Amino acid sequence: MPDADGNGRGGFSPDEAPPGSGAPNAQQARLREAPSGSGRPMISVQGLHKRFGTHEVLRGIDLDIPEGSTCVILGGSGSGKTVLMKHMIGLLKPDRGRVIVDGEDLVPMGADALERVRRKFGMVFQAAALFDSMTVYENVAFPLKEHRKTGEEEAREIVRQKLALVGLKGVEDKYPADLSGGMRKRVGLARAIVLDPKIVLYDEPTTGLDPITTDSVDEMILDAQRELGVTSVVISHDIASAFKVADTLAFLFEGQIIAKGPPHSLRDHPHPALRQFLGTWFGRN
Amino acid sequence: MSTEAAGPAGASSGRPGTPDAAPGPIRQAIEGLGEQLIQSIATLGGISLLGVRVLREAVRPPFRVSHLFSQLDFVGVGSIFIVLLTGLFTGMVFAQQTQSAFALFDAESLVGPTVGLTLTRELGPVFTALMVTMRAGSAMCTELGTMRVTEQVDALETMAVNPVQYLLVPRVLAGLLMVPVLNMLFVTAGMTGAFLIAVGVNGLSAGTFLARTREWLVPMDLAEGLIKAAIFGLVVALIGCFKGYNATGGAKGVGKATTEAMVSSALAIFVLDYIVGALIHA
Predict the structure, then answer these.
(1) Whether complex ipTM tops 0.90
(2) What's the Cα-to-Cα distance from A76 to each of A24, A59, A272, rounded to whole Å?
(3) Total-model pTM
(4) I want to staple A144 with a disulfide (CB 3.0 to 4.6 A). Which of A150, A178, B16, B253 is the partner?
(5) Which of B159, B164, B165, B254 best probes binding to A when mutated, by most A CB atoms within 10 angstroms?
(6) CA B42 remoteness from chain centre
(7) Is A123 in contact with B158 (Cβ distance < 8 A)?
């Protein structure tokens, strides 16, 4: 449901049934079981505005993402999803507003402080963004060697474990070009979680994948949350995936969050843009 | 009704003399030139700022020595053959042409110093930098551009790795350090080529060639060439990195960035050649 002031500001309204406090459903049950699901916001976006030239991309975003939960930011192309995600990891500075990650405001931070905060994050890119001149092992071991100066043998063991966690075996010596799209995404996740981050960001993880691979990527996101207890933020326009993995859905439209809450609470939302968006999938299913 | 309809929309109907009339060809040309000038100044500012950033990151840990050696190998060792070949033939052609001309007034003995001065002061640094631009500058731009458009640069940032320090510092330092070395090889190959043609083919005395060259060529000539080569190396690497690092628009954008980097680098080499030469001889 929209918030009282109609612009998506503030926390969850009472009828939105925030995760962990409302009627039971699979997502909420999963959130309660999450190892670190304390409910305190791991990421808090407050009054975020961003303009590029004359185009105002974000127009007052307020969003709290509880620790240990999975929040899917749903929206059409050009709605500002990627820009919002880039603010969460400090790749962009807002014109106005605050982005608080694990209790620290990113906006006034300098480059060194931002690099320190970014170590709390892992990010899975839409096209995986693996280093194409490196093998799978070198890709996954990259953060270990950069930040922990891990020895070769220990790094090999950690990489093997992380690849096993995302369901991959025996691919260490392959190059990204030798892998399928789904496998590349999995390697991307293995690289994202290799330093045991608190937060994993997924940028359109299922775009361009076939239904079976999409399903396996959804499972991968759920497994990462279940087994590692990470806070996950997924930006997507894939409605089916969003409803499968989300504890919280936020719908971004024209730079504003016009609805947020558990997935079921958004199905009958009155906003015409959201109705039209969800209707493209629920209308057929 | 008709008045209302012709209000703001009607004012921009393109009638000559009205403020909203379509700009004429002269105005369009001036606007186009102005935009290009602004764009060029913005690019120059961007390259300068990137240069400052690269130099600042170069003195901050972690020092990526293996990356630097890898780039020194790519820019320097990888360019040796093409630089030697270009230098050899440049010296041969230049000796052939000057000897033919000097023979008209019995001044063949000046072939050595003429070729030597030209190679050390001008042709060596300019041709070496052009070769490095074509071979290494284009590769830097394409590689960084591809990394940018496939989000590999963003991935570095999200992994808390400074992409300027990781990707750009080794490349720019390699340009700065290796172009002077390659310049010396170019000059050596060029003088060898000139000696082969003047002495071996056209029959000038070897002693005359060497003695006259020693007489005219002074260490400052070599120093001028090395200073120019270092500046060209720095600028060529910075332009290649700047264009690649800021590439947008997929494969087409990377191609466009590489073309722009090549053209800008070549222009910069010729403009800087004059400016640095003028400053040294002022």
Answers:
(1) no
(2) 29, 16, 14
(3) 0.80
(4) A150
(5) B159
(6) 18
(7) yes
